[in-house]
Amino acid sequence: MDIALSEEQQLLKDSAERFIERDYSFDRRRQLVATEDGFSRDNWRRFAELGWLGLALPADHGGLDGSLVDTAVLMEALGRGLVVEPFLSSVLLAGGLLRHGGNADQQAALIPPLIKGGSLFAFAFTERQSRYNLADVETTARANGDGYVLNGAKGVVMRGASADKLIVSARVSGDSRDRAGISLFLVDGDAAGVSRRGYPTIDGLHGAEVALEGVAVSGDALLGPAGGAFPLIERVIDEASVAICAEAVGVMAVLVDATVDYLKTREQFGSPIGSFQVLQHRAVDMFNALELSRALVYRAAETIAASDDAANRARAASAAKVQIGRAGRLIGQQAIQLHGGMGMTDELSVSHYFKRLTMIGTLFGDADYHLKRYTALGNG
Amino acid sequence: MDIALSEEQQLLKDSAERFIERDYSFDRRRQLVATEDGFSRDNWRRFAELGWLGLALPADHGGLDGSLVDTAVLMEALGRGLVVEPFLSSVLLAGGLLRHGGNADQQAALIPPLIKGGSLFAFAFTERQSRYNLADVETTARANGDGYVLNGAKGVVMRGASADKLIVSARVSGDSRDRAGISLFLVDGDAAGVSRRGYPTIDGLHGAEVALEGVAVSGDALLGPAGGAFPLIERVIDEASVAICAEAVGVMAVLVDATVDYLKTREQFGSPIGSFQVLQHRAVDMFNALELSRALVYRAAETIAASDDAANRARAASAAKVQIGRAGRLIGQQAIQLHGGMGMTDELSVSHYFKRLTMIGTLFGDADYHLKRYTALGNG
Amino acid sequence: MELKLNPADAAFRDEVRAFMRDKLPAEIRHKVEIGLKLVKDDYVTWQRIVNAQGWMVPGWPVEFGGTGWSPIQRHIFNEEMALAGAPRIMPFGVAMVGPVIIAFGNDAQKQHYLPRILTTEDWWCQGYSEPGSGSDLASLKTRAVRDGEHYVVNGAKTWTSFAQYADMMFCLVRTSTEGKKQAGISFLLIDMHSPGVEVRPITTLDGGQEINDVFFDDVRVPVTNLVGEENKGWTYAKYLLGHERTWTADVGQSRNQLSRVRKIAAEELVDGRPLLDDPAFQLKIAEVEIDLLALEAVLLQVLAAEAAGNPPGPEASLLKLRGTEIQQTITELLFEAVGNYTHPFVGDALEAGWNEEPIGPDYAAAIAPRYFNWRKSSIYGGSNEIQKNIIAKAVLGL
Amino acid sequence: MELKLNPADAAFRDEVRAFMRDKLPAEIRHKVEIGLKLVKDDYVTWQRIVNAQGWMVPGWPVEFGGTGWSPIQRHIFNEEMALAGAPRIMPFGVAMVGPVIIAFGNDAQKQHYLPRILTTEDWWCQGYSEPGSGSDLASLKTRAVRDGEHYVVNGAKTWTSFAQYADMMFCLVRTSTEGKKQAGISFLLIDMHSPGVEVRPITTLDGGQEINDVFFDDVRVPVTNLVGEENKGWTYAKYLLGHERTWTADVGQSRNQLSRVRKIAAEELVDGRPLLDDPAFQLKIAEVEIDLLALEAVLLQVLAAEAAGNPPGPEASLLKLRGTEIQQTITELLFEAVGNYTHPFVGDALEAGWNEEPIGPDYAAAIAPRYFNWRKSSIYGGSNEIQKNIIAKAVLGL
Question: What is the C-alpha to C-alpha distance for residues C169 and C113, in angstroms, rounded to an integer?
C-alpha cells in the first residue's frame, strides 16, 4: 500500500533514498557518531545543495515553500538512513519558528544562511521541570532598556552545544505554566552568560544543558509576538512532531524489512525461523503497525498542512504521536526479540534503529502524554 | 501446580466435583435454566445435606465455621459445573451478612433454615445510579414508631424474585454516597409495598428489579448497626467477590480444558489445529492466565480469612477481581475464537461458560473499577 | 482530525447527510439506534429508498448502476449512512456476488441478476462454509453432479447469514475431486426456493438466529446458473474475498458505535457524575478513535488504489483484521459503560413488537448480546489467524 | 495484600531485614539504588558477607551449607535482599552449577567445588549458547575429544555473562555425533585460566560489556572435570534450567524496581505536580503490582512443591515468562517516568569512579540503558517463545 505522492514528491523521495543508499551506509554513520560534532558538515552542505534544508522554507528567501507532506517524504527517507545530521533542530524547529514567527528582517537575515547550510540552530524550550508541557517555562526575560536579560536553565536541548544560534523560550509575565507571557529570543551560542554542557544522547545524537545567567539581548532578538509566543511554539512543535513521526516510519520500515529478512535466513531446529507460525504472525503484527502508522502520519501531515485551526493541528499531531509511540514500541521490541541475541548487540544496526525509534517515541511527549492531550482537545 | 489443601478441603473438593460429574451434566443444567425458578430445589436440598449451605456459617447454628478458603474450594467446583442454584445470593451474601452482622436472635432464627435449604434470600443493594459504589444508596428508611418505612428502588437483585426474604440497604441519614447513614433491613419478599419484576440474566441466572413503596418493617428487621452498615456490606461483598472469583477459576479451568481438547481433535488443512504454533501459544496464554488466577484467588482468600483490617481485605478482593477480570476476558474470548464457529453456538457448552465468566467479570465491579479501588486504597 | 474535504466533497457530504435525514424512516432509525432486531422488511424498505436515489451500488461500473464516485466520496457515503443510523446495505448482493457476476458472469447472468440486486428483488446469501470445513474453506464437500442441463447438488452449508430471508445463494460446490482441492470447485447460483433446499436456524450464544444450516438434497440447478467456468470457482471466490475484506473494515459503523459509547457514557453515572467525565474512560475512547483514524487512512489508500484499477490484494487482510479488532473493542466499551444492566436478558426485549417497559435504561438490552455476538467477527470471513497467514505468505513471503 | 506471616516467619523477616540494614556496605547499596555498574569486587565482597552469615546457599541440602529454610522463608530472604538494594547473588554457582554437582557430581567434585562456591573462591560462568545455536541449544558444536586423561576442547560459546570475571565455566560440549543431537552432549567444568581460552567482550545496545564470546583452542580439561556420565549432559542441563527458571521470576527484584518507580515518580513533575499523583500512572503501577502478586502466588506454590520433593517441572516456564514480562514492563514505567532525561547518555556516568555532576536528576542516567538492556530477559535462558513451546508440549500435550 503506497501513499499517493505528487511527481515532485516522488523525485524528492527517490533522490533522498538514493543518497542514503549510496552515501550513508551504517558503517559511515557509525564513524560520524564517533566524531566530536557527531555528524558531517560535508553531508550538511550536500543537503543544502539538494535543496533539503530549504524544502519547507519561504521561496522569497531561497526555499521551496514545501508543505509538511513534502517534509514527511524527506523525513521518512532520512529515517531509513538513521541520519544524524541536525535537520530537526536547525530546519524543522528553528526554520519553522522563523517561517511562522520571524519578522521580515529576521527572515531575510537568518533563513538564507540556514538554507545554505552556513549556520546551525537549536531550540531551547524544555526545562528540568517542564516535561512535555510547552507552557511550563521558568526561564525569565526581564526588560532592560530596549532589550532583555535572560536568566534560567534549559535542558535536553537537541544540538544545543554545536549551534551557532539558540532560540530560547522565556517568561516575560505570568505564572509558571501560563500560556500567556512567553516570548522567544534569538541568542548567540557564545553570548556572554550562556554556558553549554554538551553530551551524546543514547540514540547517537547530541544534546545539551544550557544555563543562561544574565544574558543580555537586544530588542530585535525577540522572535514572534512579545509574551504571545505560545501558539507559535505549539504550532512548530506540532509540525515537528509529525515530521519525526515520518522519520519513525522510515526507521520502522527498515526494522520490518530487516526482521523479515532475518526470519528468512536464520536457521534453527533445521528450518528458517520464518517457518514458525508464531514468528510469522509477529512479523505480520509489525507490518500492519507500520502500514497503519505510515497512513496515519501522512494523513496527519496533510491535515496540518491544510488547517488554520490550532486545535485541529494539535489533534492531528497528537494522534500521530500516539500511533507512532505504540507502533514504535511494538516494532522496536519485536525486531530485537526476533533477532534474538544478535539484536542485543551494538554491532548490528538493528539495535541502533530500535534506540532511535524509542527516543522518537518520547521526544515532544510520549504516547500517553499525547493521548491525554488528544482527549483534552475534545472531539473535533 | 496445585493449591495445597487440607484434608478436609480435599474431601470437600472431591465430593463437589463428584456431584458435578455425576449429577450436573450440561444438558441437565440446560433443563434447569429453562424452568421458571431457573434452578432445582431438589439440588438445593442436596447441597444442604452435603453441608455446603452451612460451610461458612457458625457452628452454633448448624454450620461448619469454614473459612473463605473452604468456600473458594467449593465455589471452584461449582464453577466447573456452571451451577445455577442460588448459592451466591442466599449463602454468600445473605449468609455472610447474617454471620458478620446478625444479632443472636436473627442468627438463631434465620441461619438454621438457610442451612437446611428451607428459605431463600436475596441481597438488594445496587440501584440504578449506584453502579459499583456500595455507598451510593438513595433508597430511604424513615423511622416509624419502633420500626421503619422503606422507599426506593433496587436494581439487578440476583435471585430477587424467588427469595423468601430480602435484605435491603437503605439510607437513614446523610447524602447520597456517604458511607455513614446506611442501614440494612430484613424484608419479606411478599411484604406490602414490595413489588418485584423478575427476569433471566444472560448467563442463565435470574435477577429482579425491586420497588419499595412505603414498606413498613418492625424495629427488629434492622440487621447490623443502625446507620453503620457500610463496613458490614463492604466486608461481605469483598468476601463474595473472592468467592465468585474462585467460581470463575472453575469456569476457566473447564474452558482451558475444552479448548485444549478441541485443538487436539479438530482437524483443518489435514492436521489437528493444535499443531499450529500460534494456537498452541494461545492455549499457553490461557493456561498461564488460569494458573496465575487460581494462585492469586486462593492467596486472596487466605489473606481475607486471616485479616482484621478492612483495607487489607479490600485490596485482596480488588486484586483478585482485577486478575479474574483480565484473565477471564482473555480465556473466554480465546476459548470462543479457538472453537471457531462452534464456539458461537448456543448448542455448545463453551459459549455458556464464556457468558458466565464474562458476567462474573462485571459482577460487584469490573476489572477497571477494582484497579481504581485498589489504587485508592494505597500501598498496603 | 477531520478529513480534509475539498468544497465539492463537502457539498457531497451535505447532500448525503440531507438524504439520510430526510429519507431514512424514523422507525428504522430508532431500531438501529437502540439495537433492536431488524426484520427483512426493514432492510428491503431502506434498500429500495437508497436505490430510488441511485445510490444502491456505488462501487459498480456506471453501466450497471454504479455512481462513478471517487474513493473519498464512497467513503463519505458509507460513513454518513452509518452515522445516520441507517441499516447497513446487505453485502451479499451488492458487495459480494454482484462484483463476481460483473467480472466473471455471462451477459445473460448480468442482465438477469444485477438489476434484481439493485431493487432487492433477490435477497442473496453466501454458501461458502460447511460443517467441518471451517477455516480450511477449500476442503468443502458439497457436490454438484452434472445431469443434462442441470447440476444436482447434495451437501450442506453452515454459518449462512440470513439464509432464512434469502431468495438466492451463491454457492461453492465441488464439481471435481481430481487434482488440488482448490481445483475442483465451481461457483453456482442456487435458487433457495428450489425443492430439496432446507434451512435450519442456528441459535447463537447471544440468543440470535441470524445464521443457519442449509441442506441440499438432490437440488436441481440449471447449468446456466454456473458463473464462469466449471472448476474455476476458487478464483472467483478469492476475488470476492478481497472485496469482502475491504467491506469488513466498516469504519463508519465503528464511528457510529463510538458515538453510541459517548451517548451512553454521558447518561451512566459513576459516583453521581457521568462516566463520560471519567479520565480513564475518556482515554479508552480516544485510543479507539486514533486506531480508527489510522484504519481509515489505510482504507482510503486501498479505495484509491482500487479506483486506479488495482483491486485490493492480500494487504486488504489488514482491513479485516484491524476493522474487526476495533469493532470488538467498541463492544467491550459499550459493555463496560452499561455496567450492572448488562445482566438482564429478556430475549423478546430486542424484538420490535415488545411493548413492556425496558429493564434499566432502554439502551441496555442490546449491549451484552452485541458483545457476545460480535465475537464472530474475528472468526468469519476468514478468521483473523487466517488473515495473518495470508499477509505472512502473500505480502511478507514467509 | 501482604503475605500472611506467622510469628516465626515475621521474626525471620525482621532478622533478615536487620542483617541487610547492618551488613550491606553503604557504597554498594548506593550503586545498586542509582543503577551504577557493579564491579567484581562489589559482588565478591557482598557474597562473602552473606556467606559469613551462613546464608549463601539457602536452597542447597543442609549438609552442603543449605539453611533448611521453608519455602516461605527462602522467598522472604530473596525479597528482603532485593528490597534492601543488595546486589543479587550471582546465580551461576549457587543456583546453576551447584545443584547440578550436588545431584550428579561425584564426591571429589562435591568436596572441591561446593565450598569454593560458598566462599566465592570460584566465579562461575555458563557455557551453553554458541554462535548459531540460539534457541536450538542442542545443536551445539563445541567438541570435546578424549585424549588420555584429558578432553581437548575446541569451539566457541557466546552470550556468556560475566565470563570476564570467571574462574570456571560449566560447559555443554559435544562428545558424540551419533544418534539424536541431544544424546551426544556432556557437561564439563572448564578452568577459564587454561591455555587456549580466550574471552572477548560483546558490547550490547546499552553500551554495556557484561556478555562475551568465549573461544576454545585446544583447551585441555582433565576428565575428572566431567560431571556425571559422558553424553548424558543434556539431562543435567535440563535439570538446571528448571532451577534457573524459578530463579528468573525474581519477584523481590521487581518489587524493588517498582518502589524505584514510585520514588522517581514522586520527584518527577507533571504540570508542577508529582507524576506519582497522576491517576493514569497510578493505575499502571497498580496493574503491575497485581501481576506481581499473582506471580508471587505461583512462585510460592512452586517453592512449596520443591520443598516437598517435586522439583520444578515445565510449569516453571510460566515463572520465567511472566517474571521477565513484568521486569520489562517495569523498565518501561521507569523510562516513562524519567521523560526527557532518558536522552542523555554518557557512558562513564554509570561507572563508580565518575565524579561529574549528573545530567538531570541523578537517577536518570541508568534508566534508558536498563530499558534497552532488559530486552535480553525475554531472549536469554530459553526465549519466551521457547518457554511457550515447552508448556504447549510438556504441559498441554499439544
Answer: 12
* B285-322 pLDDT tens trace: 999 999 999 999 999 999 999 988 999 999 999 999 99
Please state, in angstroms and rounded to a whole number, the distance separating the CA atoms of residues D160 and D172.
Answer: 13
* Cα A352 to Cα A331: distance, rounded to the nearest angstrom: 13
CATH 1.20.140.10 segments of chain C: 249-394
Those residues of chain B that have pLDDT short of 50 are: none
Question: Is A340's CB within 8 Å of D272's CB?
Answer: no
Pairs of residues, one from chain B and one from chain C, whose beta carbons lie less than 8 Å apart: 126
What cell does B345 get?
453456538
**What is the structure's pLDDT at A311?**
94
pLDDT tens by residue, D101-149: 999 999 999 999 999 999 999 999 999 999 888 778 889 999 999 999 9
Q: Which amino acid is at A348?
A: L
DSSP string, C76-129: HHHHHHHHTTPPPPPHIIIIIIHHHHHHH--HHHHHHHHHHHHTTSS-EEEE--
Cβ contact C135–B340 (<8 Å): yes
Closest-approach residue (CA) in chain B for A276:
B277
Encode burial over D239-266: b for 16+ CB neighbours within 10 A, e otherwise.
bbbbbbbbbbbbbbbbbbbbebbbebbe
Residues forming a β-bridge with D171: D127, D188
Q: Are A147 and A219 in contact (CB under 8 A)?
A: yes
Residue C287 known to be catalytic: no
CB C341 within 8 A of CB C360: yes
Backbone conformation region of residue A156, classed left if phi is above 0, alpha if psi is from -120 to 50, else beta = left
C290 and A319: CB-CB below 8 Å?
yes
**Fold held by D249-394:** Butyryl-CoA Dehydrogenase, subunit A; domain 3 (1.20.140)
Quote the CA–CA distance of D349 and D355 in Å, as a whole number.
8
- Count the neighbouring beta carbons within 10 Å of the beta carbon of residue C150: 16
pLDDT of residue C350: 85
What residues in B contact D315, CB-CB < 8 Å? 1, 291
Q: For chain C, which residues lie within 8 Å of any Cβ of chain D, measuring from their own Cβ?
A: 279-280, 283
| Beta-carbon contacts of residue B170 (< 8 Å; ≥ 6 apart) | B137, B139, B140, B141, B148, B150, B152, B182, B183, B184, B185, B212
Best mutation target among A263, A268, A271, A278 (most B Cβ atoms within 10 Å) is A278
Q: What is the CA radius of gyration of chain D?
A: 22
Comma-separated ranges of CATH 2.40.110.10 domains in chain D = 124-232
Q: Residue A379's pLDDT is what? A: 66
Domains and CATH numbers, chain B: 7-119 (1.10.540.10), 123-223 (2.40.110.10), 230-377 (1.20.140.10)
Report the alpha-carbon distance of residue C110 to residue C61 in Å, rounded. 12
**Angle in degrees, CA A3, A6, A11, rounded to 5:** 100
Find the catalytic residue in C230, C244, C268, C296. C244
Which triple of cell numbers denotes residue B71?
Answer: 468456600
The amino acid sitting at C125 is C
pLDDT in tens, B252-296: 999 999 999 999 999 988 899 999 999 999 999 999 999 999 999
Distance (Å) of CA A355 to CA A248, A349, C119, D345: 11, 10, 58, 12
Cβ distance C339 to B352 less than 8 Å, yes or no, reads: no
Model confidence at D305, pLDDT cuts 50, 70, 90, reads confident
- Give dist(CA C98, CA C345) in Å, integer: 38
CATH architecture designation of domain D124-232: Beta Barrel (2.40)
Integer CA distances (angstroms), C70 to C75, C114, C297, in order: 9, 22, 15
